[in-house]
Amino acid sequence: MPIRLYNSLTGKKEEFVPKDPANVTMYACGPTVYAMSHIGHARSAVSFDVISRYLRYSGFRLTYARNYTDVDDKIINRANEEDVSCDELAERYIKAFDEDMASLGVLLPDARPRATQTIGRIIALTSALIEKGFAYASGADVFYSVRKKKDYGKLSGKNIDELEAGARVDVNEAKADPLDFALWKGSKPGEPAWNSPWGMGRPGWHIECSAMCMDRLGETIDIHGGGRDLIFPHHENEIAQSEAYTGKTPFARYWLHNGFVNIAKEKMSKSLGNILNIRDALTGHTPEAIRLFLLSSHYRSPIDYTQESLKDAENAVDRLYKTIERVDRECPEANGKEHRDEQWFAPIIEAMDDDFNTAMVIGLLFKEVSLANRLLDEGGRDNAQELSRILSLIKEASGFLGVFDKAPEDYYKLRRAVIGLKISPDEIERLISERNEARKTKDFKRADEIRRGLLEQGVVLEDAPDGTKWSA
RNA sequence: GGCGGCGUACCCAAGUGGUAAGGGAGCAGUCUGCAAAACUGCCAUUCAGCGGUUCGAACCCGCUCGCCGCCUCCA
After folding, report:
1. What CATH topology corresponds to A4-267?
2. Cβ of A366 less than 7 A from strand B
3. How distant is C1' of B65 from CA of A60, in Å?
4. Is the CB of A246 under 7 A from strand B?
């Protein structure tokens, strides 16, 4: 079964046929590093992380690049506000972004180019576009002329005349046409600047991605991704300038765009003050819960972040690890045996092949979790074969989902740290013994008192046939 | 105004032509000293509404209503 994916360029789900299956290329737009990254950045990164993992899982040899845009108006403004250099500011937020991604289990892309390290290529591209007649210098600025390429608008479905009528574009006398966009901007004193044929200056917004992309992956790539909002103007402009430069169409064979994360049904925005940083989301929740939350909907759908939806994800992760732990305990012989069964795994592959339908995969996994518990209730050891199959299945899927890949005890350790459990495991064990003494002498009042006390501190007790278990 | 998307149970969410996955919540039962967890059963004759195509539609077409995104920086 081939992979099918939704291509924003054609508006259809298409079979994925890479240019060269032995060397698949993917580029995802990374953050502009001027502030802490938020849950929306996390969604984009997690989506393309899963896609890259799955392409590799499917047998493609993939080169995946994700950039940092580290020169930009917003960075300059912020750096001025804080009275630090642009480099220092960018460096700080690149580091923070990397840390956030690592905690969410996002693997490092093969290449992580920075705009400021690709200036030579940007200048070369800009010069070439002028030579080819697609761009023009105006003072110290260089603009791309959108009307020069007749298929401008093919990604976003816009046409130039309607955009013109929209009149929401800024008026700039230096431009021949209000819709033209800057490839190169002459810099004011104090701004980051590089020497160029047009004087000291810096790149415009869209050109850096074309440059980094070509630099790392070549003139035609297989997959180009990013958030939905980048379709216009960013990706539209990337297509225009790249195709004008190379003369090759298409620049990217498949365009993939992830949906937004809304906060309680509202778009995150500075004016609403509802931007949820990854770090804030990470206090009080395990990274795995956040990742599961993000993967519980299809990557193209909008999702709504609420306290409750996170709690749901948290419960689901707990349920899964609790079940794995139970299998380990009640049927140890199920563990360790690799039991890859194509037949049983087929529905999961089918779901992933269908435009990376992680929500479906998660549904299928939880069906297996229910089955595992039922088998254990019926007498685990008789079902070792079946249980080991389920364990293998979860392990296999966790490889590309990036969740459910820990040992249960590691997960619980992390969870205790996240919720800030004050009481020590030793103290808990001591109280459990005390309670079990009380239970033996039928002093249930005392026993319940201890249980209630622990519950108030976030510790839940379970009296199982083979002893009392606790969890946070 | 232009372009695009969405509307599936109390909540979240798959399913896109063959008769409604999964999770959470809730209710009842098994187990338990009581709980918790797990399991079992119940919980959408129906997929915003109305028409149409079809042997058959949540899935295709048309219209209506509602919500949202992009068109300006944005993941």
Report:
1. Rossmann fold (3.40.50)
2. yes
3. 47
4. no
Evaluate if the CB of A168 falls below 7 Å from strand B: yes
Fold for domain A284-415?
Answer: Four Helix Bundle (Hemerythrin (Met), subunit A) (1.20.120)
* Cis check: omega of the bond before A109, within 30 degrees of 0: no
Evaluated on CA atoms A246, A248, A249, A253, the torsion sign reads negative
**CA dist list (Å): A105 to A99, A108, A144, A292, A312:** 10, 9, 39, 11, 20
Complex-level ipTM? 0.94
- Confidence tier at A472 by pLDDT (50, 70, 90): confident
Neighbours of A410 (CB within 10 A): 11
Answer for A362: CB within 7 Å of strand B: yes
Angle among Cα A151, A156, A158 to the nearest 5 degrees reads 65
Which nucleotides in chain B lie less than 7 Å from some protein C-beta? 1-6, 11-15, 21-25, 32-40, 68-75
For residue range A44-87, what is the model confidence (pLDDT) as tens digits?
999 999 999 999 999 999 999 999 999 999 999 999 999 999 99
Instruction: Yes or no: say if A471 and A462 are a contact pair by the CB < 8 Å rule.
Output: yes
In terms of phi and psi (left: phi > 0; alpha: psi -120 to 50; beta: otherwise), the region of A260 is beta
- Rounded-to-integer distance, Cα A19 and Cα A222, Å: 7
pLDDT of A160 above 90: no
Are A287 and A296 contacting, i.e. CB atoms less than 8 angstroms apart?
no
DSSP string of A14-31, one letter each residue: EE---S-TTSEEEEE---
Domain extents for chain A? Answer: 4-267, 284-415, 421-471
